Amino acid sequence: MTIGARVFCLIGVCSAVWPLVLAAVSPVVFLGYEYMACHTFECCNSRWIKRNETELRERLRENIYGQPFATRILLNAVGNRWSDPNQEYDKPLVMMLHGPTGVGKNYITRTLANSMFTEGTNSVFIHYLTSAVHFTSDDNIKTHISQLQSWIEGNSTICGEHLFVFDEARRFPSGLFDGLLHFMAHGSPAAKRLGRSIFVFLYEGDEPIVDWAQDLYENGEDRETISLLRAEEVLLPYIVSERGSMHDSVLVKRGLIDYHLPLLPLERKHVRKCIADSIHRNILSKGANPVMLGYEDFDGMVDVIEKQIYFFPEDTPIFSAFGCKKIDGQVLSEFRLPDFKHEL
């Protein structure tokens, strides 16, 4: 189906009407319409699918803290896919991001969306499902699988390049994701149609990431030294045995998830970077400075916020319980811009 045909389908004029439209217009008029339509409506072309690797790299390096391994693997995997827009692939790129709250899983997917599509997170080629809303019941799993397959199949006829995100992936019904097999199996027609697409599973939770991170910390091992082999040795036995969405999963057993990327809990040094960035973004960029706000220096402002953050475990408080998730709120509640400050 041509771009113009896809546009007609997107606005509800498709099927039997489309041949009549083709017969009614000359090729020149049709191409002119197609050109104009794709300047107004989002189409499956380079105007709307930008694949900006530089943007992706810069944003992740500037705003993801303490995850050198995961960001390096993701940037290389995605960058190599985007380097040749004409390259065809036997299957889509499939990644699973593992980790507790506040470590960057959702930020990574938003940045991926904004770097991949001109419309960013508003693109029609981005599809976000969360276990809090979609397929919430374990009943009628066959019906859920059929619905999921039909939805993905329908999108693949519009364009072969999408971003599918499954948030809170561990809480989807067990067996649901096995319905994705023919979209990810090497060389299957459905997988080839979506060969330039990306599937991302956000597998939230502390286990077994936190224990592993603590071992790395206590043994003095650098996070950069993690390998894909070690990540799979730690993660795979847990997710296939846990009573969750990936229990005994065929996607895991057949190696169809290309990368299991651990995002480790954040240490104090990472959290301080996050605090510093939040203070610059929310306070200092508005014209304030530490002296105006009653602090001797910038580090004093960072110290105040750090003292409000809960670190664990209790005996040796190493990691932030909520990562960077609550820091913006803490900064905005602690510091008041002078222009709006009122004496109580």
From TrEMBL:
Residues 1-23 form the signal peptide. InterPro entries: P-loop_NTPase, Torsin. SUPFAM superfamilies: P-loop containing nucleoside triphosphate hydrolases. It comes from the Eukaryota. Keywords: Signal. GO terms for cellular component: cytoplasm; endomembrane system. GO terms for molecular function: ATP binding; ATP hydrolysis activity. Belongs to the ClpA/ClpB family. Torsin subfamily. This is AAA+ ATPase domain-containing protein.
